[in-house]
Amino acid sequence: MATQQTRVNSPTKLSIYDYDARITRTVTLIQNETSQKNQEIIQRYDDLMLCASMAKATRHKHLQTILNLTRYLKKDWDIATANDIGNLVVEIVRRYANDNGQETYTSYDHKKILKIFFRWIKLGSREFRDIGDPPETKSIRIKTPSDRLSIEDLIKTTKTKLSSRYEKQHYHSTVENMFRNAPCPILIL
Asked: What is the tens place of the pLDDT at every residue in 24-54?
């Protein structure tokens, strides 16, 4: 077992993103910035993610987001009320929604991880299909962020990237043919 642990963390195994170092830094921030009770709760959650064989990138994302949420909550997770969670969602939207107040990927991720983490705290499982949501997070609505381009925007953006006259003519006729009978004038990317 010890040789396997050494091999996994050996310096010869290179990673572009170095999630081990990122997780270590995030755990250090959690230890420095949160209460002892919250540290214990977050450590148990991290242990659960390890036992579930979650990817290091996923673990890092969850830990980093939980650290942010803990900073905004400003109290221990085990005594958080529905009102506290509602205020937390308001803070997420204020900080991370776009200028129109619409969901962004950051606000989406924060709400999603909040629901999963708080479900685990209150009900003992991360899985919605096993136990549903606690009353404190039942009303949180998560909308998928919209990345929509109109056909005109797509054509304009792509035409500026094309260099030769032939490329522009060929592209224009191809796009026209693709969307001539399209049922919906919007692309979802």
From this structure: 999 999 999 999 999 999 999 999 999 999 9
